[in-house]
Amino acid sequence: MKILNYTISPGQTTVLNLEIAKLHTASSLEIPVIVSRGKLEGPTVLLTAGLHGDELNGVDIVRQIVHKKINIPKRGTIICIPVINIFGFINKSREFPDGRDMNRVFPGSKDGSLAGRFAYHLLKSIIPLVDYAIDFHAGGQSRFNAPQIRVAPNDKELEELAMIFQPPFLLYSNQIAGSFRNACAKRQVKMLLFEGGKSLDINKEVSDMAVEGVKRFLAHFNMLQDNFGIKEQAKPTIIIEKAQWIRSKRSGLLHDQVEIGSFVEKGGTLAEISDPYGMENIKIKAPFSGYVINVNHSPIVYQGDAIFNMSKTL
Q: For residue 277, how many other CB atoms are within 10 A of its CB?
């Protein structure tokens, strides 16, 4: 296998550096790309995180996979990129320094914006080698996502792979123009999108759950080394075809009253919103029955803010 102008031999693990731009201080900024080939031929799996620089839970998941040597395959090749948006990671920011969301600029351009150039080189240098991918994300702006896999509807292979991963929730989610997932789909790369946790936070339960899911995914292709055990999820995956945001009716202090991932009956209390002077408490009730798959952890909300995302029966 030849990647980034380096030849990787069977049984070899190496760290390559993808350098596209420098900091404004003229210091080099490199993106480590960890490539590990098994001694036997097999598929190539890409594990990525940090497309949004402040989504640290995904970074921790891929970090664990490398640290525990789960990325050294029995067969095939595993490519790990723990941090794609290295600029955002340094600044603890979702976007690139040019203000762009990299997950909306694919396929990018070699002469375009900074984010667009990164997108272009990622697709040009890495994706042509890849058969399957898992991209790890977290909720933004204090919104905590229940661990979930998102796949495009009507793709049976992706649905089967998601069920092999065994997330607590499987969501059908249409492709978004300019996204990494959409760009991979157009290039016949089967990608699972993992969501779990929130930005600027590392949740151990979410990370451990995702690592176990990756082990099950790799074992399906006979890529997982025999010394790694596999744990089955205690509960079956819940499939969600449609979800809806519940928005705040008032501005004020938000007091959540439901756990992430729990089922709430129609009319059940989700939260209370109070003013800071003790004059009123407004209850936010579920307008329909469903699972709570995202909770806003911000202590202060404004009228119209999205505070819960719930599954909704079609």
A: 7
